[in-house]
Each structure stands twice: as structure tokens, then as C-alpha cells.
């Protein structure tokens, strides 16, 4: 089963190609997409079990020996991220059946989703820095299609900005790889780690490290590079926003985590200190945004920014607790953001607006939605035993151990602001007198509720089952903290 | 030779930044094109220019140029070609819909569309 780790990348790609032949047959498209995601999910779960029992899996394409061929590496972190991405995509696709609309379905919505999943899984799995650029482009290209699909005025206006930002950051990515190549002379990530360690990270490599932070920071939306995110993410329809919010920024976060734990670990006084400061500013900027808006979408989008800050704050600690917490919080955030975006998508579908001031009284008409939203909101804020708690606890513990007490106090205070921002949605949308038009009362929301409710239940299970999941998270953080494990798995066949 | 290339790349980046900072969308797109050209030349130069040596290792050849930057630049060119084609089509659609190519007029949010 040596090619097992390629399956989560190849399967969505293969089925996406098949889907291109059934443009008009919407039912066939739905069935094939759903089945392909289930098959990919099974493959990724088997992969995770294999990694748990046998350690890191690697494949070098074309059987070229390791530093020369393109290597694909699946450690526990990659496998967890791949599995979570497929789960989120599965539920979002299910939700799309009854919300995205026939027009978009007929114009290659599902193939674009699957192509994007190919790129996301590839970026999580690859062990070659240039190959990571290629997979970034795959997922970006699919995301360009998704963000502009439908061609509404607002979408066109915002997607131009989204694409320009990403084209420029891709050019920066190529420039950074070129500079790294001129200094180190390899693009294989394990080989880079070895050679950076050999030369002991002189100043030029620290500069390259900061360039990488810039490149991935634009994709991952850290302070002050998140400026493009709120406008662009608010433009596409809700399922696309849920996919982007749950997956795309996390690819940037993963890339920062990988490069900052594998390559640039010899001058942490500069690089990781910078990452720490930026992550705290990211949290603060996200909090300000989350409180400033009365628009459902914008409030949730700024919550993405806060979560990116929290995860990177955990990564920047570079110790056991901080890293395990960051990994735990990363998966938690993907699931809970998916769930919350689907739920507020339902609220927007029912009320017909995303402006909080124009809604009210949904509790009288749609009580189950209210309760589900409340559970998800508490989960996001990290109220025990829901899923945000364990991650934040570990990150705070790690930060105190590393002597960053102030940072962890700010991070913990941000939980309160997160809670305030989501509860504000609850108060405005669910309390008070109903403001619904008669026309909107008839909107059937049962089909939309099923995937959203299942995702909320999954996040609750993730919180309650912390004890069983921690071994997987420690496996993931072990590889990050001991780069030699990664290097040995790739270079010593 | 590397020195000349460095100046060429610098001029490309300079022109690209100038164009990207302008208001007209078409100029910005041209700027991104120049930016990626600069990046591609940078890859090629960073691998070391080999003069007339062949980029393959064959029997009896001891002096060969690093083939990897050429593989990388090829991939990067194809990708930037695809993205540029996409963005130009998108520009065309946006221009048709919004009747402007001035980025200053493309601001706005939900409340003031």
C-alpha cells in the first residue's frame, strides 16, 4: 500500500475530471461528488491508521531517490488535516445540494470544489517546496472559479481584488523559492532542513524565513496582511464561504507551521518572536473587526482571523503543550467554522438579509436552529466540554511555560470577545419580536439543517472525545518539534 | 552575466510595482505579468547561468548546468500563463458589468452597493 497517501489527492482529481463530462446532469453530479468524497474519506482514515501504527509514510514520485525526485510525505499532521478537509468538504457539498442553486451546479460547481480539495490535500501532503507552490496554484485556480461563479456584480468586483492579491503573493512565493534555492541548492523540504542545519542559519536564511512568513501570511490572513480577506470572503455564496473559511486560510497556517518548525529553527529569537508578536496583533485586529460589524458574514470572517492568530500563537511557543494545543485548535477551528458558516447561512436564507439589525425573533419560529447555533457558538468560544476548550487550555499552558504570560492573557481575553461577538448574533437574530416577511416564512430549511446539525454534533464529539484524540495530536506535534523524525523518514529509505 | 541579469530583474520588478500601483485595472494586470517574468528570470539566474554547457548529464560530460531551475521555470511560466489568461477574461467580464476599469470606483460593501 505504498501509494496510499496519494489517494486523498488523486481521488478527488479523478472524479472531478469525470464530472466534467456530465455538465447538464445535476443529479448524477451530486451523487458522484458525494460518493467520491466518501471514498476519499475512507482512504484518508486508513492512511491515518497506517501512520499511527507504522510511522510517517513517504512516496517519491517516479522512484527517483529522495532529494532528487518529488517527495510526498504524510505525517500525522498532514493526515489529520487531509481527513478534516475531506469531512468539511463532504458536509459543505451536502449543504450545497439545496442551497447553491441549479445555475451554479450546471456550471462546474462540483468539479471546482473537488479540484480545490485536490490542491488543499496536495499542499498538506507534499514534501517539496516547489511542489507546494504548484498545489497552491491548483487550489487557488479552483478558488478563483468558485469565488467568481455566478458573476454577480459584487462577486466580480471582489474577486478581481482576491485574484490580484493572490497572483502577487504567488510571484513572491516563486521569488522566495528562487532565493532559497540559490542559498541552499535544493527544493526537497527534508533536504532543506538538513542543509539549513549544516550552515547554521546565517542572516540571509532568516531574511528568507521572513519572506516565507510574508507569502504564507497573505494566504493565511495574519496581521497586517489580512486586509483582503473580509471583502473577498463576503462576496461568494454561503457554501463557498464555508469552504474558504474552513480550508483556505488553514493551508497558509499549515505552511507557516511546517516551514517554521522544519527549516528555520536555528534563530528563533528573530523568526519566532516575530511570529509571536504578529499572532497577537492578528488576534487583536480580528477582535476589533468582529465587534465592529453588524453584518453576519463579516462577524464570522473576522472570527477566522482571530483563530489564525490563536493557532500561530500556539505554534510560536515551540514547546510540547503549545504545539499540541495548536494542532488541536487547528482541527477544532476547521470543524466549528464549517458548522457556524452553514448555520448562519441558514439564518441568512430564512431572513433574506445578512444585516443583524433587520432580523429578530427567530427563536419563536425556528427554535432548533437557535439551539444548534448556541451550541456551536459556545464551542467556538471554548466553553468546556465543547471543542474549543482543550486546545486553548494547552496553548495557554504552553505560553506560560515559555514565559509569554502577557500573550496568553490577551489570547484568553479574546475568547470573551469571540463569545460576545457570536452571542450578539444570537441576541439580535433569535430574541425579540419576529421581523419576518410572510414570503420568507415558507422557506423550507430542513434540508439545510441536516448537514449543519451533523457538523455541530461532530464538533461536540470532538470536544467530548478529547482524551481519545490527544495521542493523535501529540503524534502530530512530535514530528513538528523533532524535525529529525521527518528528515529520517524522507531521506533514509 | 549574472550581474546583467540582476539589473534586468530589478528593472522588471520596478516596472511591475509601478504598474501595480496605478489605478487602471489593465495596467495592474500588465504589472502582474511583468512581476512573474521577473520572478522566472530570478529562478533561472539563481540556479547559476551555465553558459554553453548542456543541461543534461551524459556519458563523458563533466561540465553541465543545473537542470532543475529550467524545470521550475517551465512550470512557473505555464501557471502564470494560465492565471493571466483567466484574469484577462475576468477583467473583460468585470468591465462589461461595472462599466469601469478604475480600481478607485470598485470600492464598496454590502450597505453601499
From TrEMBL, chain A:
Annotated InterPro entries: CPA3_Na-H_Antiporter_D, NADH_UbQ_OxRdtase, ND/Mrp_TM
Domain annotation NADH:quinone oxidoreductase/Mrp antiporter transmembrane: ranges: 127-417
Compartment(s): Cell membrane; Membrane
Molecular function via GO: antiporter activity; NADH dehydrogenase (ubiquinone) activity
GO aspect biological process, one term: ATP synthesis coupled electron transport
Primary location class: membrane
GO CC terms in record: plasma membrane
Protein's membrane topology: Multi-pass membrane protein
Transmembrane segments: 6-22, 31-51, 71-95, 107-124, 130-150, 162-184, 204-229, 241-263, 275-294, 301-318, 338-356, 368-386, 406-431, 452-470
Pfam families to which the protein is assigned, alphabetical: Proton_antipo_M
Signal sequence bounds: none
Swiss-Prot/TrEMBL keywords: Antiport, Cell membrane, Membrane, Transmembrane, Transmembrane helix, Transport
Family classification: Belongs to the CPA3 antiporters (TC 2.A.63) subunit D family.
Name of the protein in its database record: Na+/H+ antiporter subunit D
Taxonomic lineage: Bacteria, Bacillati, Bacillota, Bacilli, Bacillales
UniProtKB/TrEMBL annotation, chain B:
Coiled-coil stretches noted in the UniProt entry, renumbered to this chain: none
Bilayer topology term: Multi-pass membrane protein
GO cellular component: plasma membrane
Subcellular location: Cell membrane
Transmembrane segments: 6-21, 28-51, 71-92
Keywords: Cell membrane, Membrane, Transmembrane, Transmembrane helix
Membrane found in the keyword field: yes
NCBIfam families membership: PRK08600.1, PRK09094.1, PRK12660.1
Family: Belongs to the CPA3 antiporters (TC 2.A.63) subunit C family.
Protein name (Swiss-Prot/TrEMBL): Na(+)/H(+) antiporter subunit C
Species of the source: Sporosarcina ureilytica
Biological classification of the source: Bacteria, Bacillati, Bacillota, Bacilli, Bacillales
